[in-house]
């Protein structure tokens, strides 16, 4: 058996411990809606991708990109980042460019924030030191995708202030975001009826920051809140007893070898 080639992060690093949990997929819709709430991101997604036809494909490619950078060997991680950057270099519109550091930082922030919120809701709480370490390691990954080091908020506390400030004053759910959001919470997949995604819509709505929940006009009455609270109590117990072969991917000690046709936008 050949030796496992080294990656960018140690196997016991917090970035790997968090990102290998399959339950993090439940936060994918949250991250997408936070991204689309930025008008320039929404325009880029709508004008340069097939999001309306395959809304979950963007999430799938983002997951594959994250896995390649976080769990792949160095060659896989760097190749994935290079391919994304090549694609993003071609994505531009009237008032946006996919390589705009501010847009890259916001997309990155939605992934960091959603990963932490989902992990701490459905797996376990992290210590302040672990959150800080996760944040700094995720920044290392984002540097490969073109985010200048000077743009990162220095600490996790600063990062939280940045996210809150963006939600309060920079984001605005416009017509395009509203239209695309319906495809996020009720995707058309394998001819499944929209009702099949009600639980996913409830989780996405519950995890979303309240100001964005209101802007997207997502239903959130007392009944929704009660069911969501039950889910946040039951799912962590289920995750805790799930065998690793079902709970996490990749298994500890395994490198990821993936094709590198990744893109966050396209």
- End-to-end gap: 37 Å
Structural class: mainly alpha
* Topology, number of strands: 0
Query: If you average the pLDDT, what whole number results?
Result: 91
- What is the string of helix and strand elements? HHHHHHHHHHHHH
Q: Indicate the percent of residues in helices.
A: 55-70%
Number of helices: 13
Whole-number count of domains: 1
Percentage of β-strand residues: under 5%
* Rg on CA atoms, Å: 18 Å
Secondary structure elements and their pairing?
Elements: H1 14-19, H2 28-36, H3 39-47, H4 55-71, H5 74-89, H6 101-122, H7 128-143, H8 156-170, H9 175-185, H10 198-207, H11 210-215, H12 222-241, H13 244-247
Describe the structure.
The protein is mostly helical and 266 residues long. It has one domain. Helices cover 61% and strands 0% of the residues. The protein contains 13 helices and no strands. It has helices spanning 14-19, 28-36, 39-47, 55-71, 74-89, 101-122, 128-143, 156-170, 175-185, 198-207, 210-215, 222-241, 244-247. The model is unreliable at 259-266 (pLDDT under 50).
Looking at this protein, list some descriptive labels.
single chain, 266 residues, mainly alpha, 13 helices, 0% strand, globular
Short note summarizing the structure:
With 266 residues, the protein is mainly α. It has one domain (14-242). The chain has helices spanning 14-19, 28-36, 39-47, 55-71, 74-89, 101-122, 128-143, 156-170, 175-185, 198-207, 210-215, 222-241, 244-247.
């Amino acid at each position: 058996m050949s030796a496992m080639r080294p990656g960018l992060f140690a196997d016991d690093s917090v970035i790997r411990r968090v990102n290998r949990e399959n339950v993090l997929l439940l936060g994918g819709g949250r991250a997408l809606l936070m991204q689309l709430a930025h008008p320039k991101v929404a325009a880029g997604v709508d004008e340069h991708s097939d999001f309306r036809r395959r809304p979950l494909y963007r999430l799938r490619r983002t997951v594959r990109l994250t896995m390649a950078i976080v769990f792949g060997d160095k060659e896989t991680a760097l190749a994935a980042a290079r391919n994304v950057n090549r694609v993003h270099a071609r994505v531009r519109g009237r008032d946006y460019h996919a390589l705009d550091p501010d847009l890259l930082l916001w997309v990155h922030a939605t992934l960091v924030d959603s990963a932490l919120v989902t992990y701490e809701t459905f797996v376990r709480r992290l210590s302040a030191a672990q959150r800080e370490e996760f944040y700094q390691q995720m920044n290392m990954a984002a540097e490969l995708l073109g985010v200048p080091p000077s743009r990162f908020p220095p600490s996790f506390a600063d990062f939280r202030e940045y996210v809150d400030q963006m939600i309060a004053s920079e984001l605005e759910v416009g017509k395009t975001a509203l239209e695309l959001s319906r495809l996020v919470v009720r995707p058309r997949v394998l001819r499944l009826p929209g009702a099949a995604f009600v639980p996913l819509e409830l989780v996405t709505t519950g995890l979303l920051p309240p100001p964005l929940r209101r802007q997207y006009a997502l239903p959130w009455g007392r009944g929704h809140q009660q069911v969501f609270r039950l889910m946040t109590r039951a799912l962590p117990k289920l995750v805790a007893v799930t065998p690793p072969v079902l709970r996490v991917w990749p298994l500890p000690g395994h490198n990821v070898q993936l094709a590198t046709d990744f893109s966050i936008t396209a």
